[in-house]
Specification:
- The protein is α+β, with helices and mostly antiparallel strands.
- The chain has helices at about 10-20, 40-45, 65-75, 100-115, 145-150; strands at about 1-10, 25-30, 50-60, 85, 90, 95-100, 125-130, 135.
- The protein has a 6-stranded mixed sheet, covered by helices on one side.
- Strand 6, helix 4 (about 100-115) and strand 7 form a beta-alpha-beta unit.
- The model has no long low-confidence stretch (mean pLDDT about 95).
């Protein structure tokens, strides 16, 4: 098993998309890339922690490659928006890839270069070593799945 880390705006939809990929065995949403130890959602939303809303993925590289996960990353958000995704604005919504090995770094850089050719504006995605991951509060984990389970059709 390997780990991958992606920040692509609000982590709820990003998790919903990645957890459905065959070969992904686990997903966790949380906070990465900042200075504040053990941040809460409120801390991160203040913009003062430096953390990004991040999805950590455990995957089996024999079933899904890191490169395939990178392709999905580029598809699920607009990597040309600096510190925002759609209506969500702030450094916590920045685009970032947190790599866990030199091989992941090489693949991430190559994929960013390939992705740039698909956009007319500059891709602003950070590619940085994976710092400590701080899991978000339980109610954020699989948030969309939980909401769907408690919704009622009328």
């Amino acid at each position: 098993m390997e780990k991958a880390g992606f920040a692509a705006g609000c982590f709820w939809q990003v998790e919903e998309t990645f957890r459905r990929v065959p070969g992904v065995s686990a997903t966790r949403v949380g906070y990465q890339g900042g200075e504040t130890p053990n941040p809460t959602y409120g801390d991160v939303c203040s913009g003062a922690t430096g953390h990004a809303e991040t999805l950590e993925v455990d995957f089996d590289p024999e079933q899904v490659s890191y490169e395939q996960l990178l392709e999905l990353f580029w598809e699920v958000h607009d990597p040309t928006q600096l510190n925002r995704q759609g209506p969500d604005v702030g450094t916590q919504y920045r685009s970032a890839i947190f790599f866990h090995s030199p091989e992941q770094e090489t693949a991430a850089v190559a994929s960013r270069e390939a992705a740039q050719s698909r956009f007319s504006r500059d891709v602003v995605t950070e590619i940085v070593p994976a710092p400590e991951f701080h899991a978000a509060e339980d109610y954020h984990q699989r948030y969309i799945e939980k909401r769907r389970a408690t919704s009622y059709a009328y």
